[in-house]
Design a protein that fits this description.
The protein is mainly β and 179 residues long. The protein has one helix at 2-18; strands at 22-37, 40-55, 76-86, 89-94, 99-103, 106-113, 116-121, 126-133, 139-142, 147-152, 158-164, 169-177. The strands form two sheets. It has an eight-stranded antiparallel β-barrel with strand order 5-6-7-8-9-10-11-12. The chain has a four-stranded antiparallel beta sheet with strand order 1-2-3-4, with no helix packed on it. The chain is flat and about 70 Å long. It starts with a helix and ends with a strand.
Length: 179
Amino acid sequence: MKNLLLSTIFLLATLQITAQNKNVQKETETVTTTIKDSKGKKKIVKTVETKETQDVELNMSEKKGKNIPMKGESKVDVTKTTKVNIDGETKYYDVDLSAYYISDGNKYQMVQKGNGYSMINPSNTSEVGVLRKTSNNNYIYRNNDKVSFGYFDNEGNLILETYDYENDKIVMEKYSVEK
């Protein structure tokens, strides 16, 4: 009985130690505004929550101890949620990512359309591709000849990952946001 109890405590302790495999950073910004009009005072509370999640991979060398270096740069998933509370009524909004983006010297405009975005070539106002949001805050990009997986990095740049059938590898395209 004593061995079973000690084994259970040891097992639970080792599971707790190995369970931490993500860096998570949350930042909340709250702005409170009071508007006075003919109907009285309205209190508007706008809360923007930014959550950054990064998978942790350790560089398993011969170094032992607490400060083991991380293996390279891994992808950081950024999720922004805006919550607006007007006199007790709360509404949630996703951040609008409509902007101009540049890739390979070409300029594109991202416009919110339906349940996603349309990528437009502003020189001839033709639609180049369509982005649709998935359930895990990523996007599926589709144009005439390819389908890609997309996400936005910390700086707001659009990163598209496409599978190259001929070379059997993933090709990454970066659309830099124009500031």
